[in-house]
Amino acid sequence: MFDLVSQLTHRKKGHTLEAPFYLDPDVFAADMEIIFGQHWLFVGVDVDVPEPGDVMMVKIGETEIAIVRDDDGEIRAFHNVCRHRGARLVHEEKTTVGNLVCRYHSWVYNLNGELIHAEHMGENFDKSCHGLKPVHVRSLEGLLFICLAENPPQDFDEMERQMAPYLAPHNLREAKIAYQHDLIEEGNWKLTMENNRECYHCGANHPELTVPLFAYGFGFDPKELEPHEREHAENYACMLNDNHAEWEAQGLPSKEIDRLDDMVTSFRTERLPLAGAGESHTMDTKRACKKLMGSMTNAKAGALHFWTQPNSWHHFMGDHAVVFSVLPIDAERSVLRTKWLVHKDAQEGIDYDLENLIGVWMATNQQDGELVGYCQQGVRGKGYVPGPYSPHTEMLVEKCTNWYVGRMLAHLAKTRAVA
User: Fold this and answer.
1) Residue 418 pLDDT class (50, 70, 90 cuts)
2) Same structural domain for residues 235 and 324?
3) Average pLDDT score, the chain
4) Is this model's pTM higher than 0.85 or not?
5) Which of 270, 258, 368 is nearest to 314 (CA)?
6) Is residue 129 located within the same domain as residue 177?
7) For residue 135, what are the domain limits?
8) Measuring CA to CA, how many Å separate 20 from each of 28, 88, 190, 237, 308?
9) How far apart are CA 101 and CA 116, in angstroms?
10) What is the pLDDT of residues 117-159, one digit of tens each?
11) Please, which residues have CB within 8 angstroms of residue 193's CB and are 6 or more apart in sequence?
12) I need a labelling partner for 331 at 20 to 30 A (CA). Which of 241, 262, 311, 350 fits?
């Protein structure tokens, strides 16, 4: 029998996890309870619900959350469960309502989650005791996070304090979603996240993504470089320092912040230069949208990346942003949800060509989905044993895996202490 606590405690540093962490339904259930049930999760953007009455439904495992903008313009979140007999309330991913009405017995809730109408419940029935169950929700400069725990991690405030200046110039609240794509990856959510946290695989697998990205921005073994490669790496390091100084002088915070393994609400950010024209994640490396985002005045401002544990990564450029969330389905499948955002006044066909806007990441996501599937197939076999991370190109994978192990053990230790 798989002993979760023992396996976590004796996990071999610098290596992938044992196979059951990617396969076992019981481990997946623990992940959903501890990681996805106790931490802040990225689920969308403010402009997913741009107007009062707009609703977005998000599914995390078997839990559905309705995110609404109320009549005062505030964003709220509730469990998507009627308080009568448990029917789901919202059936579409997105809709617009006056009130939330259960189709089963027509119980009606306002956008604050209060039960305002329930027929035939008797004169002693107290509607105030049967409002929708709220879920914690926070907006970080237009990025929406929810927490399913009764008491969410308090260090979200610290992440917000550090990240808000980085994100503010892109002003996601004044953007719109140009396109959304959901890809079901045939792999455990941790494999999807591990794949994202390194670019060791990029050169051999991402011909589109490596057009705008510099290879030396994602780690390398200096001892393996040829003289001309070493020169290129040194030039990149100088360019990075120069760009950071230039961008920060323009009011664009750019320097690395790495809190991947020393916070409960862990994150990482840095603004990185882009190759070629240096403007965007496109095949010609030029801006995809004529209208720049927020207060951005320079299209050649690199790409700000922002990662959060356990389920997101994002890229913010002068002309558009791409945000990603990983939503587990079961032990061996996950949804990768990608949204491309442009300035709210940008018009498709005039200010941007949609295929050009989404082309690099549509191709990259498909390629990564295949790679995650290969890993999932491999860990099912008897030949799988935990393999070593590269200390030069997968050091951030190790930090994220170490965060996962630490958060699991902390919760399990607390649970045992209470018991």
Assistant:
1) low
2) yes
3) 96
4) yes
5) 270
6) no
7) 44-152
8) 9, 32, 12, 40, 24
9) 10
10) 999 999 999 999 999 999 999 999 999 999 999 999 999 999 9
11) 310, 311, 326, 400
12) 262
